[in-house]
Specification:
The complex is a heteropentamer of chains A (274), B (344), C (149), D (652) and E (351).
Chain C: E1 18-23, H1 27-36, E2 45-50, H2 58-66, E3 71-76, H3 87-105, E4 112-116, H4 122-139
Parallel strand pairs in C: 1-2, 1-3, 3-4
Chain D: E1 5-10, H1 22-29, E2 35-41, H2 47-59, E3 64-69, H3 72-86, E4 94-98, H4 100-104, H5 110-128, E5 137-140, E6 144-148, H6 152-163, E7 167-171, E8 186-187, E9 192-193, H7 194-207, E10 211-214, E11 217-225, E12 228-235, H8 250-254, E13 258-261, E14 268-271, E15 273-274, E16 286-287, H9 302-306, E17 319-325, E18 327-330, E19 334-336, E20 353-355, H10 356-363, E21 384-391, H11 407-421, E22 426-431, H12 441-450, E23 455-458, E24 461-467, E25 470-477, E26 482-488, E27 490-495, E28 497-499, H13 503-510, E29 522-524, E30 528-532, E31 537-539, H14 549-566, E32 571-574, E33 579-581, H15 591-595, E34 601-604, E35 609-612, H16 622-626, E36 632-634, H17 639-650
Parallel strand pairs in D: 1-2, 1-3, 3-4, 6-7, 6-18, 7-10, 18-31, 20-27, 21-22, 21-27, 22-23
Antiparallel strand pairs in D: 5-32, 8-9, 11-12, 12-17, 13-14, 15-16, 19-28, 24-25, 25-26, 29-30, 33-36, 34-35
Helix pairs in contact in D: 1-5, 2-3, 5-17, 6-7, 6-14, 10-11, 11-12
Chain E: E1 7-12, H1 16-21, E2 27-35, E3 38-43, E4 69-77, E5 84-87, E6 95-100, H2 102-116, H3 122-128, E7 131-136, E8 163-168, E9 171-176, H4 179-188, E10 192-194, H5 197-212, H6 221-230, H7 236-241, H8 249-252, E11 260-268, E12 272-280, H9 301-320, H10 330-334, H11 341-348
Parallel strand pairs in E: 2-6, 6-7, 7-8
Antiparallel strand pairs in E: 1-9, 1-10, 2-3, 4-5, 4-12, 8-9, 11-12
Bound molecules: flavin-adenine dinucleotide (2 copies) and iron/sulfur cluster (6 copies).
Amino acid sequence: MSQNAYLPKLGRIAAIKEEVAGARAIKTFRIEFVNGDGFEHDCGQCAMISVFGKGESMISIASAPHVKDYKQFSIMRTGRVTTALHDLNVGDVVGVRGPYGNKFPVKDWKGKNLIFIGGGCGLAPIWPVVQTAVNERRQFGNITVFYGGRSSRDIMYRNELEKLKGDVDVHLSIDAQEEGWDGYCGFVPANVMTKAPKADNAIAITCGPPIMIKYVIQNLKELGFEDDMIYTTIENKMKCGIGKCGRCNVGKDYVCVNGPVYSWAALKDLPQEY
Amino acid sequence: MIDVAALKAHAKSLLEKGSVRAVIGYRKSTAGLLAEPATIADADATDDLIFDPTCVQNLALYLVNDKKERVHSRSDDKRPIAVVAKGCDSRAITVLLQEKHFPRESVHVIGVSCEGTGVVDARKLAKKLDGKKALSVNFDGSEAFSITTEDGAQSIPAAEVMAERCLECRSAHPTLSDMTFGEAKSERALHAPFQAVKHKMKDEQDNRWAFWARQFDRCLRCYACRSVCPMCYCEECVVDSINFAVLPDTTADEKADRIKWIERSPARSETAMYHMVRAIHLAGRCVDCAECERVCPVNIPLRLLNTRLEMEAFETFEYNPGSDMNAPTLTSSFRDTDPNSFIR
Amino acid sequence: MANAVETAKDETGFEPKIVAFLCKWCSSAGSDLAGVSRLQYPSNAVPITIMCSGSMSPMFVLSAFNKGADGVLVSGCHPGDCHYLKGNFFARRKIYLVQKLLQFVGLENDRFRMSWVSAAEGVKFAGVVDEFVKDIKKLGPQTRLKAKR
Amino acid sequence: MTKRTGVFVCHCGNNIAATVDVARVAKEMGEVEGVIFSKDYVYMCSDPGQSTMANAIKDNKLDSVVVSCCSPTLHEKTFREVTEDGGELNPYRCEIANIREQCAWVHKDKPKATEKALKITKAAIKRVQNNQSLTPIGVPVTKKVMVIGGGVAGIQAALDLANAGLQVVLVEKSPTLGGNMIKLSETFPTLDCSQCILSPKMVEVSKNKNIKLLTQAEVQDVSGFVGNFKVKVRQKAIFVDPELCKICDDCSKVCPTVVKNEYDENLTARRAIFIPFAQAIPATYTLDESSCLGLNPVVCGKCADVCEVGAINYDMRPKIITEDVGAIVVATGFDLYGKENLGEYGMGKYDNVLDGLQFERLCSASGPTGGHVLRPSDHKEPKNVVFIQCAGSRDPESHCAYCSKICCMYTAKHATLYKHHVPDGQAYVFYIDIRSGGKGYEEFVQRSMERDEVMYLRGRVSKVYEQDGKMVVKGVDTISGKNVQIDADMVVLALAMQPSKGTADVAKTLKIGRDKDGFLAEAHPKLRPVESVTAGIFLAGAAQAPKDIPETVCQASAAASKVIALLSKDELMHSPAIAKVRLSHCTGCEMCVQACPYGAISLTGPGAKASVNDVLCEGCGTCQAVCLRAAIDVKNITQLQIHDMINASLGV
Amino acid sequence: MTKTVAMEKMLNKADLAAWMGKLDSHRLFSPALEDEDVWNYMPVEEAAKVLLNHPNTVRPPKGFVFPQREVLYEYSQVPGEAPVLNETLPDPAPAVVFGVRPCDSRGLVRQDIVFTKEYEDPYYQGRRAKVIYVGQACNQPPSPNCFCMSVGGSPCAEDGLDVLMTELDGKYHVKALTPRGSELLAKGGELFKDAQAADKAAVEKAHASAKAHPQRPIKDLGKVAGALKANFDSPAWDEMAKACIGCGICTFLCPTCHCFDISDEVKCSSPCKGERVRTWDSCQFPDFTMHTSGHNPRETLGSRLRQRVCHKFLYFVENHDTQQCTGCGRCVSLCPVGIDIVSVVERLGQP
Ligand SMILES: Cc1cc2nc3c(=O)[nH]c(=O)nc-3n(C[C@H](O)[C@H](O)[C@H](O)COP(=O)(O)OP(=O)(O)OC[C@H]3O[C@@H](n4cnc5c(N)ncnc54)[C@H](O)[C@@H]3O)c2cc1C
Ligand SMILES: Cc1cc2nc3c(=O)[nH]c(=O)nc-3n(C[C@H](O)[C@H](O)[C@H](O)COP(=O)(O)OP(=O)(O)OC[C@H]3O[C@@H](n4cnc5c(N)ncnc54)[C@H](O)[C@@H]3O)c2cc1C
Ligand code: SF4
Ligand code: SF4
Ligand code: SF4
Ligand code: SF4
Ligand code: SF4
Ligand code: SF4
């Protein structure tokens, strides 16, 4: 097919995993391209997923770039398209176009300590970085993951996180006390403070609800992290993915092209319209 | 004639006493002849207020917008807001009160009577002046406008350049107000109501369709007509929404199940449906301020469409929108004597 | 499959697509009676049973035309007989307005009709549909409000 | 949206299969999005059909089913039960597509009928895919009933209810039970004495332990809904303790004020402290505040002085009594059409122009004349009496449009009674036509004409005036076409019956409708004649329409039995297919509130948005069509569902 | 588009129709009354009636290259099977649009930047390649709200045009600006005479006098961007937007605005069939940026007015070194409530 950026490639759903149930349900979809189509991506990039008759949604690619056989997406059911996606079954075919956006400069981080701080479904956009770092474990220093959900049922990638233990310091938390929970209870930024990771030679990568990000950044700065040592991703409504439809425009940036990955140093200067 | 100085003084004293949050009125625009709606919170700025035949906008809209804004800003200032209201504006406010959009005590209505005239139709005026640019329009006695152009001032009989709606106006005196400027004139001796609609109704059906098809085809779906309508205050319009009504507890299902009655494409069928739904929704609510028609950048005669059902409301159901804030609405009431013979 | 959901067109000509909104208690029951009495009428009108003619939103009428209906019929209980007391009185007022509007924009008068059919009026129901189909056949396909799809 | 729909297409033997290609319907419906099982079967409603369905639901984990078969009025219940019991699926996940009555039976052309069956079935699929699982709403009931109005209707209803073991609160506005009937002399068609048949019932009421009688009381406010009403009753102060009152009449003898006695239709007088009549229930004197000189020993206090038992207490104050009841029977009865309205007949102007009830009093042994028909002006026996029927009835131009139904009969009765009292007198009756439907009624009228030689004149009276001590009645006899003039001694008008004063207020308080004549409106004129439009509120007696005693009693017992049935369960089940508000879209415009026929919606909460009372809502959807912003929808027949059904019916 | 040496010719006014007649391989458009008072680019039905004496059209000519509705592709999908997509790239017949005002052609240049810089939008390109813009210099300002010169343009600006015509006494001075323009003139053959020195002088005079018409000024255009940035948080945005009704007039009718929405238009629900289309959208609509969660980064009218003005006078300048406003004055004249981009820039875009 042509170079038409609006035309999706087709992908078959190879597996569906229910991460979180309930009102804010999240499912992870493993999608394999059909017809020999496909594209490569970088950590932090996203793709537009189409359910024909319903529309398109921009979703972060949650699998690591080195995984070539499929792409993985973790999608929260929130509206028309995402509900339609949640209604699909293994074997169904959807449209996928991308990759869109910039990337986490993972290559520049070789040799550094990586600290991941995620909340809720905000783990998905930074998960490829975690995967990449673990895959090239020796290239990096200490890897620490802070992750929290509202309750133990809201913890996504539970098994994967368990498997990481050993290679990686994993600190899980839930917002409120629950029976049988032996991890931290409280909000993620507070958990970060109690463990107080060192800022030396470190990069902090965070994603989650805006209010969480706000406190995480505050706390990180208290711990001595400089603005350019903190990375996050932002979301804005998107339609085209190629900087034309105008929707995700913030200041001079189009989030779909110039984002979604920002260092706090860069984000600070952007108008707060995200 | 309206004593504008007294109006200003009234506005000023309201603000000085702090008895209102702000005054919604008119001021001179930088963009052209027509006045600009102004929300004035500062007593000193009341001097900017004007009232002349260029004050065409229906300011009831800004009461609606004010409510939205206050919800957004979580303001807890309980004082009323004052608004300058012509006859049609006050009817619109009455409909809003009837629909419990806000409580009566939250608005202080400064009524202004249109007496024997009304407001100017900028397009008619431009034609009348044949290329000359009007700089200002003022009342000139009770039946004429004084128009200033680069060549000086001239007086034109108001009826020649008056908005159609004013020619057909059934109550040019505010029906609801806390303070009124200008006198009530019962004799206006202008056009009979619904003249334009009745004229169009005489046309052959096929011609009527050809006419409307041409109009609908031209529509941009910019939604200015709806945005300017004080009655189209819905958070989310059923026909085609440019806003979503979402509360913190709105479920994913509710969002996913929004009905798409029409497409956003500017196709004839979709546009026709948009305008017809609006006309139906305005039945018994449209106060004929004709703002929809005025704002349309491509001159679609929406007043003609919307007053069609107004005519039915008035003539068939003896329902006069904006006359009684305590009455049930047109479509949420009925009479045993409603027409029945059209049913087989 | 594709033609399954389209109205079959016989060689002789145009088969109108009609949506008939019937209130559950009278008109739908009336159409049942027509069935029990084995009355024959054309198959063009697809019934949609609604609780009460009072629940007939003008949106349904306009939408049906938008989706390509050649005719729309609304039928409810006679005045005074509404199962829900007065739903049909509200319907009457609203439908009257919708009809006037459709006529004003120039949709052919005969394409939109309302009738009162009681549960006992099986014959009337069959007659209403029969007549409606005939009238619409005379008009041919509805093109004015139909979306080009 | 459901994802696993099953479709079952019934052949109905050959009933459907002869004209609809059921196999094709089953096949094509199997290809519709979300349908994972589709099958045709010869008789879906048969036992094997039902188990096929039940098994298919379980085996395929269906989450919604459509049965394409006969009218839902026949088997919706059956298939929903199968869905629930056999399929272990919520019954509301089952919808019926009617392809028999609405399709197979009315078309002959098989391809066309099949096309239509496809559309009908697809529409049902689209609908069911957005159905919610619903459970009927259970509402606990209070096993207590309020009866409003203590006329014969109220008395009968209260007794029936009390005898069925229910607690009853009987609220009567006046100081005594009995209503209009207790004032009657003898009753048609059998001419038995009204008081003789009603008094024992009144006594029974006062003795029945299950009945709480509140006289001089009126309902002030009603909230709640069927099974759970909360009623506030305001009871006037009567200033006499009924427990102590011995009915000795000492008090009234000393009372200085004299006023007209409404219990004798103002033909006699009474004191400020009085008993309406000897058999009044409750049996006690009562002090009428409005005619008393001042309720104060300083001003008068004579009655209190003479009352030996000290039953009189000037310090009594009105009471507000709150009662929780499960149902309400309204039996507020009738009044005669206002006399002031009939000036043309000299009503209210001449003493000798009487209304029917006054005449009843004249005939009554306990009445002002001790049962002798004497004319009020001079207490002479009238020799010529003119009875005018339809006085105020059947006159849409100037009076009431309706027929008061009983006047023909009671006029015949009056004329008969008159003749019994004054055998040498002449009774004339002006009538339009005679309506004497009812057991023994026609015979009764005939008797009055033949045996009692009552002179029936067909025609209207144009004028009544007094001349030389006579009442001149001018009219036309339309049969002979001649003008007639009768110089009568007395004229009796059969005034129209109208809803009793205050009916409008009662209806408003109870939120029940009234018809165009002001009578209380029944839920359905044919099928639900004793129910009001509001669930749990029932009607009895003349408040609903003019009627005579047998009919009144019938209706009262019918209302009572409806209530007994209603309250026989501990919980009421209400259909869950009711309206639901999308709060994000509601602007609180109140249109739905105005339109809901059941008053089920009110504005509540911050920002005042619509809220539906689950129990009052009947699911009619009137609100849905009135709401401009589609903020209110009836569950399982939402606008989204109708939208989808429209599309399916048009093949879009 | 590479510029060649301009070719300057003269055309008798009376010969305009004849020239048009020779362009029958193209669809021709020129400003005409679509309905009472509504000037629009309409297909030329009778060349002799084309007068080119129009005020500014209500719609800019952007629809020729960026129509309000563009089908991106058609899809169809049977449940359980793979969807079938059918790309629908536009391939319209070539068209010549006459009477394009220089502000509008400069708008086209802005559209080019958006749709072809970095990524070439195939739909835009497909149409752009087929449309020839014949401009018309504004001897008289066509609208009282014109301010082209205040934003770096002029009543006789040439950018974006293939041909520029200037009305002189009884004649048009016709200047071909691109090879496509030259071809168009070549088709006229004999009708065109070479412009003489006197003609050139007359044109220059006409242009000079056009430029001398007073326009609404914007002081220090170069400093506007900086000032807007500094005033980003000013409460004046909300104040100036108070009257705004949030409609789409200003953006839909702006020759430079390019925002769009993409949505699925369903023709049949099962089997699922339909079109994916893009339609104009507006940053002034509240749902433009509203997330599904209800969170809206630009919730207030003020923030949306700021977006419109800053996009045109700040962000576009930062990205492309030019304003995204060409001073056509439409948004000023057509705004129902007098929101005036010039006074906004005057108030918030001045240091
Ligand atoms: C860069 C980026 C990465 C994202 N990654 C993920 C992810 O990994 N997992 C996930 O669950 N969600 C992600 N989202 C959010 C996701 O795009 C929205 O939840 C989704 O578009 C909602 O679509 P809908 O049709 O279900 O909602 P509807 O309300 O039905 O759709 C409304 C429209 O609004 C747009 N929209 C609404 N909210 C958003 C939003 N927050 N962001 C962008 N567009 C929106 C959609 O384009 C849609 O067309 C991401 C968004 C962005 C911008
Ligand atoms: C002249 C005449 C002669 C008649 N003769 C005969 C006859 O011979 N045979 C026959 O079958 N029928 C006869 N009828 C008809 C008969 O009187 C009625 O059918 C019967 O009285 C109806 O009874 P009811 O209980 O419905 O109403 P009512 O008798 O009117 O009783 C209503 C009761 O409700 C009370 N009430 C009213 N409003 C309220 C309130 N808001 N709150 C509390 N209490 C309230 C009233 O005080 C009254 O006690 C005659 C009627 C008339 C007028
Ligand atoms: S319509 Fe009537 S009230 Fe409104 S401006 Fe015109 S004259 Fe005044
Ligand atoms: S204002 Fe005019 S162009 Fe805009 S949507 Fe309304 S009718 Fe259409
Ligand atoms: S057209 Fe109807 S739904 Fe839309 S905004 Fe107006 S009133 Fe509301
Ligand atoms: S009609 Fe609609 S918007 Fe109005 S109160 Fe009822 S539910 Fe709310
Ligand atoms: S569905 Fe009918 S009964 Fe229920 S709230 Fe709506 S109008 Fe009232
Ligand atoms: S912003 Fe306004 S003046 Fe500038 S080009 Fe756009 S419409 Fe014209």
